[in-house]
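Hi R.,

Here are the chain sequences for the assembly we discussed:
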Amino acid sequence: MIAVLLILIPLLAGLISFFLKSERAARSWALFSSLAALAVAIIAVTANGNESNLAFRADWMGALNSSFSIRMDGLGKLLCLLNAVAFPIIFLGTWHTQYTKAANFFGLMLLTQAGMMGVFLAMDALLFYFFWELALIPAYFLCSQWGGPKRIQVTFKFFIYTFIGSLLMLVGLLYIYYHTPDRSFDIKSFYAIQHHITGNEQTWLFWLLFVAFAIKMPIFPFHTWQPDTYEQAPTSTTMVLSGVMVKMGVFGLLRWLIPVLPAASWAWGDTVSWMAVIGMLYASLIAIRQDDLKRLVAYSSIAHIGLMCVTVFSVNEIGMQGVIIQMFNHGVNIIGLWIVVELIERQFGTRKISELGGIAQKAPAMAILFVVIALANIALPLTNAFVGEFLMFTGIFNSAVTKYNVWFTVLAGLCIILAAVYTLNMIRKVFYGNTVERTANAIDIGLMEKLALGIIVVLIFWIGIYSQPFFAISDTVSADITNSILNKQEVLPVIKK
Amino acid sequence: MQNALQIAWLIPFLPLIGFLINGLGRKHLSKSAIGIIGSGVILVSFALSIWVFLQVKQSGAGYVANYFNFINVAGLEIPFAFQLDQLSSIFLLIITGVGFLIHVYSTSYMHDEKTEHFGRYFSYLNLFVFSMLLLVMGANYVIMFIGWEGVGLCSYLLIGYWFKNQEYNKAANKAFIMNRIGDLAFLIAIFWIISRVGNVNYSDVLLFAEENRFSTTDITAITILLFIGATGKSAQIPLYTWLPDAMAGPTPVSALIHAATMVTAGIYMIARSNILYSLSPLTMNIIAIVGLATALLAATIAIKQNDIKKVLAYSTVSQLGFMFLALGTGNYVAAVFHVMTHAFFKALLFLGSGSVIHAMGGEQDIRRMGGLGKYMKVTHITFLIGCLAIAGIPGLSGFFSKDEILAGAFARSPILYAIALGTALITAYYMFRLYATTFRGSFRGTTEQQHHLHESPGAITTPLIILAILAVVGGYIGIPEYMAHGAHWLQEFLRPVFASSNEVLKPHAISHSTEWMLTGISTALIVIVVAYAWSRFSKKPELEDARGVGKVLENKWYVDELYQKVIVNPLHKTAGFLNTFVERLVIDGLVNGVGRLVNYGSRQMRLLQSGQVGSYIFLMVLSMLVIFVLQFFLRK
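And here is the predicted structure of the full complex:
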């Protein structure tokens, strides 16, 4: 039942929120609801040996052989935890940001959270698709109603992209459904599909699903919706999109692509990895030339997610663990970056790096917290991202499925250097040096923001120094996913490139 | 020994505590409290290091202390563990000992800073010592790497300590980024090791190597990658250009981080992995050549520098090159020996230069100094001792360690020896050019500066005196075999660390008479050069701008400009091209094109929805006809 609560709490709280009158009430209600969800998530994650609580099954669409089947496995636990941790931090960090029609705004935010919870929990393909859309549609309204000046144009692009992705995914899922022997959307039937379709079919299905997930992550060259959307969306929505929602893409690979189509994942892994590696370098280079803080963080995120994609297709247990923990880390860290970007924009009225400077003199707390988070973002040791990236790179280098492992390691490794270049230059221009006109009277951050950033910093060092409890959460998932390919070598020869 | 193990974690932990107290309390603590906490934690660490050292010396063995699992996933186990043995205990002493002196020195040197920034300074300095201790105490490559990047971070923070100055911030970024290039190679080496050995513990990796289980390709790749990492941290060709720029930081920082400790991390790393290198002759040759080339290149540049700290910076790069030459010739003990003596005399010289800069009111150009010996006696005498030590005058510490490196080079090849000796002569020359221009002759600054000239207070001169004593006597722990049998204490002490390497390399000793001759030649030449430089620059310091070759040297062989042209600018241009052309026009253009096509298509389609029943019927009939025709053809 606990797992159901995780979906129900934000869903009901979101619906109730639409009827709230004052902005204050809506804001407090959203924070309260997100804290409740967090409490439930922590109980779920720490409930060892009581797995029956973490699964739920009910009839849903019996005619289609699809049921409301959810279960919280190791992967789901960590991502639900991320989803539950992210929202209170977002609400705290943007506590002083004003929204028109706040009740609707917070309602939609909570509905998004509910949808994402469902995505991470669903054990039925149709249910998965349902939640996938449930998460997207409120996000679409959040961008189009509360976004920046170019929101209509940009949201249209966002919509078209994600809509095409969803459509491809739906076609793929339906095709698989029709070829399951028992005509079922159940995940077990999906995991058995490989024995009932030809290699050619696997290939086509692989690309249908991969493109859907690649758009979400996003992977080069399906990424151009992302910098625009991140830039134009209200920052708290950007936090949701980049902190949690992009993980739906990576999650999709891990749960609904690789174990379903292992042979095709093996066969096309190199192609996909090359796309991701090129995308990493491409995004890192572009990040160097960005003057808008939001776009800089957006491109940096493309590079980080690209690394996850390469690692996933390297199919190595160590690397898989790295990806799983890194999804959590990336979510936490990038929300921290956005909070500071939001504070800067609200206080100084600009996000342009060239129009800022010397903030560290006036607002040391903001500068210190930001620098810590930025250093975590470039994976300095003893921060959380180092643990994740170290394992991911180890996984790529030791990959048994590709002969380009050294190339991938070196090329992706160059992005570590480039990340230092754009991050340190941004810090230098925004925080160091002398103040400029806009920043001459800067004031430091308040209690709520300190609290939000403080929680993030604690998580950064906790996972960075002692990550074992977090690895314990995700448990044997990485081995299962890896083995879904590596143990299925007998079906591999059916694929011809 | 068990006792030592139980408290060993305190050695890095105390500076970490100091960092937290000073960092968080910088607005609430007084300057003296900050200074006492900052220096005090290092002093206690130093005392503990001495104890650990004595324990190691007594037992003659190394121990590993496991604390917790840093990473333990999917069969990859990386413990958070410390290794206490001969090599790490020597480095512990240098880091905490010299570190303590520099902390004390800083309490006076940085006293004009605002309390808040004073606290920030000491917290960074403590954090640095913590990271450096992790680096040398770690029992595996990952813990070393944590310290490795940690010291890089502190170096970045301290170079950019005066963060209002964007030039300093740029220097800080440059240091961090160039170090990161090396760090990437280090990381790849770690991945490579994991792929072959399955973990990263020194004991397992070195045993794996001793048992000859690495293929030649593996060991060559791993050693070269680790060495590239070392070139970043220890400022060797091609990644050395950040170190002279790092002089933007406060002078005590230059002494501690950019001379005595952090930059020797690369030497520590290779000495720690010595058996890997001994099994890879190709890498050994590369190291010897790169080290010697760096030593020579930096020495030539130092000849024409006029900033007192820049001369010392290039001299550091050059001396580090000597250490790599020693490593490359399999002379590991000599490298560690030189790390130690260099820590003494180079810290001394930097702190001395700080005392000078202080007296000169911030002036760093030696052309505006001169005759300072009259005004600051302690600084003068101690600085002179430092110069004599680095030049290699017999009896002082630098003589013993440098002599050992030269002898090792001779054993490998007379050509290496000749170039190294030439570099040593250049060193003597530029150091005494520096000394004479600064302390001899008559004062060339403004009268206001002249009135201001004074000896520095006790907190500055006391560390100078202690370091000067160490710079004199530090060499006597390594008296060469040809002078006195069995008197090389350091060699005996470190023997277990390098035992397997010595079996592999079987260094062929040169006869005692040859060694006496070599020492005689080098000493005579050095004394001549010292005397020449001393008298020449005391009488007529170099005040006019350099011309010809001198100008090239003054401009550091234009290497920075070359890097800018060949690497930085193209990278920037490529990034700009991708940003403005590929991203905006090609990819986004394609996407928007598709979007427009859809829009256009739907607009046309909309026209069909006219609402007139007649046109719908017409379309239906038309479609049925098309289907009918198609069916007809397809059936055939």
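Chain B touches chain A through 53 residues (CB under 8 Å). The mean pLDDT of chain B is 90.

Let me know if anything looks off.

Best,
T.
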